[in-house]
Amino acid sequence: MSFSDELRARSADLWEAQHAHPFVRGIADGTLDPRCFEHYVRQDYVFLIEYARLLALGAARAPDLETMRRFADLAQAILGEEMELHRGVARDLGIDAAALEREAPAAATRAYTDFLLRTATLGDFAELAAALLPCMWGYAEIGERLAREPAPADRPAAYTAWIATYADPEFQRLAAWSRALVDRAADGLPEAHRARMHAAFAGCSRLELAFWEMGWTRAR
Ligand SMILES: Cc1ncc(C[n+]2csc(CCO)c2C)c(N)n1
Known about the structure:
Blueprint (H helix, E strand, L loop, with lengths): L2 H8 L1 H8 L2 H8 L4 H28 L3 H28 L4 H6 L4 H16 L2 H24 L8 H11 L1 H18 L4 H27 L3
The chain binds the ligand Cc1ncc(C[n+]2csc(CCO)c2C)c(N)n1.
Organism: Paraconexibacter algicola
GO molecular function: thiaminase activity
Keywords: Hydrolase, Thiamine biosynthesis
């Protein structure tokens, strides 16, 4: 079993709880309250800005030029294309980009981005790689699973677009790249160091679950 598979297996409960979460199920069956989706999109916009910071720190710490390039490209892709998906959804809801940028982070958003940036600043590159994996792999897995389900006819277009974004083969390749990055980073590390990578991965898996819950309850 690869190290990333081991991480995934040790957090399996948290991952299954995400797949079963009413927010995720509500996107799939189209019954999610649009107010919850709006809250989530606003908060995810804030999240993505901080996630781009994490990737920029990753670029600075990358062990080789190719990895550095990938981190820089990814930060660019998030600040461009992925945030554009959110801006498009927000536009349809009558929220302009400036209002999105003024959104204050909810406690769950702050907890997640603080954990990411803490890991990136106080940990090393291996921990940073482990911290970004649940985000990449989790959404790729959710997108892939939801895309395989038959789409209900009355599902809002924004939910279908969301699923299509994360089910895209590009995201599947991105998740595979992140797993390989973590496996390479863990190679030859002593057990105590691998334990820190595990703590970063498990912590982020828990915060991903809390993020769905924040969307579902519209908590601030
Ligand atoms: C809370 C939260 N977790 C994960 C993602 C998904 N995601 C964020 S950045 C990125 C990588 C490249 O775009 C991916 C897959 C999200 N949007 N919001």
